[in-house]
């Protein structure tokens, strides 16, 4: 009977040792899991900081690009505005000049009865005025002599 009791005690000791080994192993797994979770959380924080830094860098770069584009657009707009103003001044000057010339010509036409379509009045180009039918007459500016003589 002693051998069954001894065997039972030995088995109990082996079981106790096995349980202790299992407990130590489980505790070791828990420690390793906690360390692993700590490393993972650390890596997640690092990745988050890195991603945030990349986003911030990208935002600064985008702001710089937009700022440069706005600066260039403003410069181009100013140049175009200046060009338009110069072209307008040139056009306006030419248009004003045209209108002045037109006014002078209009006055010249209105003052000349043959060009204005008015009929000549007595003393305004009749037979005694020295003008021919075409209005050239004997004027010095017509290139013909006034007295009708052949001139030699």
Describe the model.
The chain is mostly helical and 152 residues long. Helices cover 75% and strands 0% of the residues. The chain is built from two helices and no strands. It is rod-shaped, with a radius of gyration of 57 Å.
Q: How many runs of DSSP E, i.e. beta strands?
A: 0
**Beta strand %:** under 5%
* Average pLDDT for all residues: 83
Percent of residues in helices comes to over 70%
Series of H and E elements: HH
Radius of gyration: 57 Å
| Low-pLDDT residue spans | 126-152
Question: What descriptive keywords fit this protein?
Answer:
mainly alpha, 75% helix, disordered C terminus
Q: Could you outline the blueprint of secondary structure elements for this entry?
A:
Elements: H1 2-111, H2 113-116
Could you provide a short overview of the structure?
With 152 residues, the protein is mainly α. 75% of the residues lie in helices and 0% in strands. It has helices spanning 2-111, 113-116.
